[in-house]
Design goal:
Rossmann fold, 6-stranded mixed sheet, 34 helices, ABC transporter transmembrane region fold, alpha/beta
C-alpha cells in the first residue's frame, strides 16, 4: 500500500498525496469498525454457546420432552435464544456491511477526490495521468479490502485465544488423595481420617452468578468422615434421599474437594455409577472398555451378570450397538452392563452406586449373590443401596444422614445401637429368613455364540454424504428462505451498483475526450453525481444483502430445528447427538457468517466482471477472442477445482460430527473414565477424530493454493493480451479509450479472480445449506400433533379406561417384536401394577401407549377412542408420566415443574410438600426460583425423582404412568410417595411399573409381562392363590413375603 501510495504521489504530486491521505484516513475508521465487530462477535459467540448448550440439554432429554409433548415449548425457547443471537448477528452484519462497502466505495470516492483536486490545482486532465491514477487506486482497493478481513481474522483469533485462556487457566482437578497401586501380598484398602468434602463449583460461573443463582454456590458438604476398610470387606452405604451416599463415593474418587482430613487408597478402583454411563458402541465393547478380551472371563461375567437372556433377544448378540447412552436398553439392562464392565475390569476396589435399583427382585438377588458377594468376595466393595434386604449380608454398614456418618458397624450392631436404623429395618423388614436369604443356584446356561448372528445389530446410521455438484435447488431454497422479492431486490441493486461504478470510470474517459466542450464545474458536478449515486446504491445494497442473508439463515435454523424436534424417537436412537449438534453449530455458523461473506463478493465481482468485459469489448472488439479463450481455461480450471473442493468440504463437515459426539459423551462420563484410568485412551480417541478433521482441512488449503497460482497466471496472460491489442490498435484508438481499456482489464482480471474464488468457496460452503436442507427433506416425522377433524373431546379421557387389542410393537434395530399380540383392558380408576424380569417389555407398553414407538399391528384405545386416530399432542398432554430416568433442564425449579406457568407458588409448594421436598426447596436462597444446573446435577438422583413426582401431581392427568419412579428412593420415602399417589390419584387410572413388590402389592390388578407377552393378569389375591403363579414366585423372593401376603389377605385385594 505504501509503495502504491508513493507511485501515486510521484505521478500526481500534491493530488496524489491528497488521494493517498484520504485512503489512509479510511484505515483507522475500518479498524474502529472492526473492533466493534469483535465486541459484537464476542457477545454473539456467548449466545451461540448458550443456544448449542440448550440444544444439547434438549436432545439429551428428548424422550421426556416427547412424553410431555413439550416440543413446541422448547422450540420457542430455542427460537427466543436465537432471536437474541439474531440481534447481535444483525449488529455484526451492519458493521461488516459498512466495512466491506467502505473498502469498495472508498476507492471510487478517493478517485473522485484525487482527480478533482488535480484539476482544481490547475492541471489539465490527461489520459496518461488519470488512468495511471485509476489503476494505482484500484490496486489499493485490494489492500483496503483486506483491512476488514485481517481485522476480523485477528479479532476472532483473539476471541478464540480468550476462550481457550479461560479454559486453560482453570485449575485442574486436584486429587489430594494418597493413592498407590496394590502391593504384592498386601490387601487393598481405603483409609479416611476426619475428612470433610465439598462440591467444588466452577469459580468463574459462581462469581458471575452469585446474586442471580444462589444455589450454584450452595455447596453440599460431607463432614467428619472417618473409616478404614480393606480387601474382603463388603460395606453397605445407606441413608435417606439426599443424605450424601453418592457424594461419599465421589469423594473416594477424588470428584469432591477435600478441605480437611486425609484419604489414603491402595489399589485400583472400578465404578458402577447410579446413572449408568455407556458409550455408543457394541454391548461387548462397553463391557471390555478397552481391556484385553478373555473369552472365559468374559463369558463368566455375562453369566453372572444375568445378561445371557438379553443377548438372545438382541439382533446381533453382544455385537449389537446399544446406542448413545444405551438409549435402546432398559434401565435394568444398562445397570447390568455397567456392573459387568466393573467386574470384567478386575479391580481391587469396587464402588457400586445402587446397582440393583432398576432390576427385579429375582435378578437382584442373583446379582447380589453371584457378583457383589460372589465374584467380588475378595475385593473391597462399597455398596450403596436402598434395598434393605441385602444389609444383613454385608460385613459393615455406613448409615448417612445430612452428609454425616451417624451409624457404623455390622447389621446386628446397628440394630442395637442406632435408633433410626432400627426403626427403618423393623418397619420394612421381616426377621424371618426367606427365600431371598438362600443363595440361588447358579444355573448352567448355554454361552451364546454371537458370531453366528446374521443381523448386523447396527443402530447408529452412517452419516450420509452427497456427491457431485451442489444442486441448483439448494441455492434456490437458500434464496427462497431469504425471500424471493428481497433476493431479487439485492440482485437488481447489485447490477445498478456495478453499472454506476462502471459509469463513474467511463465518465473519466468521457471527460478527457470532451474536456473543451464544457466547463470544469459542469464535469465535476456530473462526476460528483455519478459518484454519489454509486455510494448510495453500494451502501443500500450492502445493508439489504446483510438483512436478506440473515433472514435466510434464521428461517433455515428454525425450520430445521422444528423438523428435528418432531422427528420420531427412532431417529434419535440411530442419530448421535453430536451429529445433530454439528448441524446447529458448525453448519449453522457457515450459513450465518461464512456463506454471506463469500456470496457478497462473488455476486459483486461477477457483475463487475461482466460489465467491464462488455465495456472493454466495446472499446477493443478484438479483445473478445482472447477473452473467450481465457474464460474457457478459467472455467475448466474452476470446474476441476470445485469438484475437489466441494467433496473436501463435505468430508470436512462429516469429520466434525464425531468430534462433537466424542466430546459430549466424554464430558458426561468423566467420573467413570477417571475411575477406570481411561483418560489417555479417550484423549487419544479424540485426537484421532481431530487428526482426521485436520487432515481434510490441510488438503482444503492446499487445493486453494493450487487454484490460486493458476488463476494468477491466467490473469497475467490476459493483461498481456490487452496490452498487445492496444498496441496493435494504436492508429485508431484514442489515448483515453486505451487507458480506460487497460484500467478495465486490470479491474476485470482482479474482479474475475475474486469472483471465481468466491463462487468456488461459496459452492463448497453451500454443502452446509445442503446438509441442513437434507435434514428438512430426509428426517422422518412423527404423526401429526394435531388432527382437527379427529380432536378428542375437551375433557377426554373422562374415565381412564385403556384397551390393548392384539398389539405388536418392535424397535428399529430388531426384526423381532418386543410386544407380541398383547391384549388387555384396564378399567376406569384402576390401579395396575406391571412386573416382569428386566427387559421383558414393561417400558415398551408405556412407549406404545404414548406412541413414542408406533405399533405396527393391533389397536390401543382410551375411553373408546383409537389413539392412532388423534394427534400426538392431544394424546400425550392428556396423559402423565413419572419416568424411569428423572430429567431436568437448565432453568429454575419452577420452570421445570411448571413450564407453562399455569400454577401459583402455593400450588407448587403443596405438590412439593406431598413428596417431602418442600423444606429442602424452601431452605434454598431463592426457593423455587433456584437455578437447576445442566442435567439437574445439583440435586441427588432421588431428589430428582421426587421433583418429577411433584411435576405429575401438578399436572393431575386422568391417567398416570409411573415407570420405576421410586427405584432410586429409600424405602421409607417410597412408602410416603405411594401413600401420596394413592390419596392424590384416587379417582384416576394409575399404571405402575416397579421391581419392588411392596410398591404395587396394593394395586387392584397385577400384570406380569415376559418376553413381550401377557402371562398373568389378575388381582393380587388371585395370583397369590395360584401355586404356579410367576407373581407368587416374585413375592416369595422378598424378605417380607409373609407380610405382603398378609397385607393382601387383610385388605382383600
Amino acid at each position: 500500500m505504501l509503495v502504491v501510495g508513493a507511485l501515486l504521489i510521484v505521478e500526481l504530486s500534491w493530488s496524489g498525496l491528497i488521494g493517498f491521505a484520504t485512503l489512509l484516513l479510511l484505515v483507522p475508521f475500518q479498524v474502529f469498525i472492526s473492533r466493534k465487530i469483535a465486541v459484537v462477535r464476542r457477545s454473539t459467540v456467548r449466545i451461540t454457546d448458550e443456544r448449542v448448550r440448550t440444544m444439547s440439554d434438549i436432545l439429551s432429554a428428548i424422550q421426556l420432552i416427547k412424553f410431555f409433548s413439550w416440543e413446541d415449548s422448547f422450540t420457542k425457547k430455542i427460537e427466543k435464544i436465537r432471536a437474541n443471537e439474531l440481534e447481535w448477528l444483525q449488529r455484526g452484519k451492519i458493521f461488516k456491511s459498512i466495512n466491506d462497502t467502505t473498502s469498495i466505495v472508498g476507492v471510487v470516492v478517493t478517485t473522485f477526490i484525487t482527480l478533482v483536486s488535480y484539476v482544481y490545482l490547475g492541471n489539465s486532465l490527461e489520459a496518461s495521468k488519470a488512468f495511471t491514477a485509476l489503476s494505482l487506486l484500484n490496486l489499493m482497493r485490494n489492500c483496503l479490502g483486506r483491512v476488514p478481513r485481517f481485522s476480523k481474522t485477528f479479532a476472532e483469533m483473539f476471541i478464540t485465544f480468550e476462550r481457550l485462556k479461560h479454559l486453560l487457566i482453570r485449575p485442574n482437578l486436584v486429587d489430594d488423595r494418597i493413592t498407590r497401586d496394590k502391593r504384592p501380598n498386601h490387601n487393598a484398602y481405603i483409609s479416611v481420617e476426619d475428612a470433610t468434602f465439598i462440591v467444588e463449583e466452577n469459580p468463574k460461573k459462581a462469581e458471575q452468578e452469585d446474586e442471580e443463582n444462589p444455589l450454584l454456590n450452595t455447596q453440599f458438604t460431607l463432614k467428619d468422615i472417618k473409616f478404614f476398610f480393606e480387601s474382603g470387606t463388603l460395606v453397605a452405604i445407606v441413608g435417606s434421599v439426599g443424605a450424601g451416599k453418592t457424594s461419599l463415593l465421589n469423594s473416594l474418587l477424588g470428584q469432591m474437594k477435600k478441605i480437611s482430613g486425609k484419604v489414603e487408597i491402595e489399589g485400583s478402583i472400578a465404578l458402577a455409577s447410579q446413572e449408568p454411563w455407556l458409550i455408543n458402541d457394541t454391548l461387548k465393547e462397553n463391557i471390555l472398555f478397552g481391556t484385553p478380551y478373555n473369552e472365559k472371563k468374559y463369558n463368566s461375567v455375562l453369566l453372572n451378570c444375568e445378561l445371557l437372556d438379553d443377548l438372545k433377544q438382541l439382533p446381533a448378540g453382544d455385537q449389537t450397538e446399544i446406542g448413545e447412552r444405551g438409549i435402546n436398553l432398559s434401565g435394568g439392562q444398562k445397570q447390568r452392563v455397567s456392573l459387568a464392565r466393573a467386574i470384567y475390569a478386575n479391580r481391587d476396589i469396587y464402588l457400586l452406586d445402587d446397582p440393583l435399583s432398576a432390576v427385579d427382585r429375582h435378578v437382584g438377588n442373583n446379582l447380589f449373590h453371584k457378583c457383589v458377594s460372589g465374584m467380588l468376595k475378595k475385593k473391597l466393595v462399597f455398596f450403596v443401596t436402598n434395598q434393605l434386604q441385602y444389609l444383613s449380608k454385608c460385613d459393615k454398614i455406613l448409615f448417612l444422614q445430612d452428609g454425616k456418618i451417624t451409624g457404623y458397624g455390622s447389621f446386628t450392631e446397628l440394630l442395637d445401637s442406632h435408633t433410626t436404623f432400627r426403626k427403618l429395618v423393623k418397619k420394612y423388614s421381616n426377621t424371618e429368613e426367606n427365600e431371598s436369604g438362600k443363595k440361588p443356584q447358579v444355573e448352567k446356561k448355554d454361552i451364546i455364540d454371537t458370531k453366528g448372528k446374521k443381523e448386523s445389530g447396527t443402530l447408529t446410521s452412517k452419516e450420509e454424504r452427497n456427491i457431485g455438484v451442489v444442486d441448483f435447488s439448494v441455492y434456490k431454497q437458500y434464496f427462497n428462505y431469504g425471500g424471493y422479492k428481497l433476493s431479487l431486490s439485492v440482485l437488481i441493486l447489485s447490477i445498478l451498483t456495478g453499472v454506476s461504478h462502471a459509469v463513474s470510470n467511463w465518465f473519466i474517459s468521457y471527460w478527457i475526450d470532451n474536456v473543451t466542450k464544457g466547463s470544469r464545474e459542469f464535469y465535476v458536478g456530473l462526476y460528483f453525481g455519478v459518484t454519489f449515486l454509486y455510494v448510495v446504491l453500494a451502501y443500500s445494497r450492502g445493508f439489504l444483502f446483510a438483512y436478506t442473508s440473515l433472514r435466510s439463515a434464521t428461517r433455515i435454523h428454525n425450520t430445521v430445528f422444528k423438523v428435528i424436534m418432531h422427528a420420531p424417537m427412532t431417529y434419535f436412537y440411530s442419530t448421535p447427538t453430536g451429529r445433530i449438534l454439528n448441524r446447529f453449530s458448525s453448519d449453522q455458523d457457515k450459513i450465518d457468517e461464512e456463506i454471506p461473506e463469500l456470496l457478497n463478493p462473488a455476486l459483486l465481482n461477477t457483475i463487475s466482471s461482466i460489465i467491464t468485459l462488455v465495456l472493454i469489448v466495446a472499446v477493443l472488439y478484438w479483445f473478445v477472442l482472447p477473452a473467450i479463450l481465457m474464460l474457457g481455461v478459467f472455467v475448466w480450471i474452476i470446474r476441476y477445482f470445485m469438484a475437489s473442493s466441494r467433496e473436501l468440504r463435505r468430508l470436512e463437515a462429516i469429520t466434525v460430527s464425531p468430534i462433537f459426539a466424542h466430546l459430549s459423551a466424554s464430558l458426561k462420563g468423566l467420573p467413570v473414565i477417571r475411575a477406570y484410568d481411561a483418560q489417555y485412551r479417550f484423549e487419544n480417541e479424540y485426537f484421532v477424530h481431530l487428526d482426521k478433521h485436520h487432515s481434510i482441512l490441510l488438503i482444503v488449503e492446499t487445493v486453494a493454493r493450487w487454484v490460486g497460482i493458476r488463476l494468477d497466471a491466467i490473469a497475467t496472460v490476459m493483461l498481456a493480451f490487452t496490452a498487445f491489442i492496444i498496441m496493435a490498435s494504436r492508429d485508431w484508438i484514442t489515448p483515453a479509450s486505451a487507458g480506460l481499456a487497460m484500467a478495465y482489464s486490470f479491474q476485470m482480471t482482479g474482479a474475475f479472480q475474486l469472483a471465481v474464488r468466491a463462487f468456488a468457496e461459496t459452492d463448497s460452503k453451500m454443502t452446509s445449506v445442503e446438509r441442513m436442507l437434507d435434514c428438512v427433506s430426509n428426517t422422518p416425522q412423527e404423526a401429526p400433533h394435531k388432527i382437527e377433524e379427529s380432536e378428542p373431546p375437551p375433557h377426554w379421557p373422562q374415565k381412564g379406561a385403556i384397551t390393548f387389542n392384539n398389539v405388536f410393537m418392535k424397535y428399529p434395530i430388531s426384526e423381532s417384536p418386543v410386544l407380541k399380540d398383547l391384549s388387555f383392558t384396564i378399567y376406569p380408576k384402576e390401579k395396575i401394577g406391571i412386573v416382569g424380569r428386566t427387559g421383558a417389555g414393561k417400558s415398551s407398553i408405556i412407549s406404545s401407549l404414548f406412541r413414542i414407538i408406533e405399533i405396527y399391528h393391533g389397536k390401543i384405545e382410551i375411553d373408546g377412542i383409537d389413539i392412532s386416530q388423534i394427534g400426538l399432542q392431544d394424546l400425550r398432554t392428556r396423559l402423565s408420566i413419572i419416568p424411569q430416568d428423572p430429567t431436568f433442564f437448565i432453568g429454575t425449579i419452577r420452570s421445570n415443574l411448571d413450564p407453562w406457568e399455569a400454577f401459583s407458588e402455593d400450588q407448587i409448594y403443596t405438590a412439593l410438600k406431598k413428596v417431602k421436598m418442600d423444606k429442602v426447596i424452601a431452605d434454598l436462597p431463592s426457593g423455587i426460583e433456584t437455578i437447576i444446573t445442566e442435567g439437574g446435577k445439583n440435586f441427588s438422583l432421588g431428589q430428582r425423582q421426587l421433583l418429577c413426582i411433584a411435576r405429575s401431581l401438578l399436572q393431575n392427568s386422568k391417567i398416570l404412568v409411573m415407570d420405576e419412579a421410586t427405584a432410586s428412593i429409600d424405602v421409607e420415602t417410597d412408602s410416603i410417595i405411594q401413600k401420596t399417589i394413592r390419596e392424590s390419584f384416587k379417582e384416576h387410572t394409575v399404571i405402575t411399573i416397579a421391581h419392588r413388590i411392596n410398591t404395587i402389592i396394593d394395586c387392584d390388578r397385577i400384570m406380569v409381562i415376559d418376553y413381550g407377552q401377557l402371562v398373568e393378569f389378575g388381582s393380587p389375591s388371585d395370583l397369590l392363590s395360584d401355586p404356579n403363579s410367576i407373581f407368587l414366585r416374585l413375592v416369595n423372593e422378598n424378605d417380607d413375603a409373609q407380610k405382603l401376603k398378609s397385607f393382601v389377605r387383610e385388605n382383600k385385594l
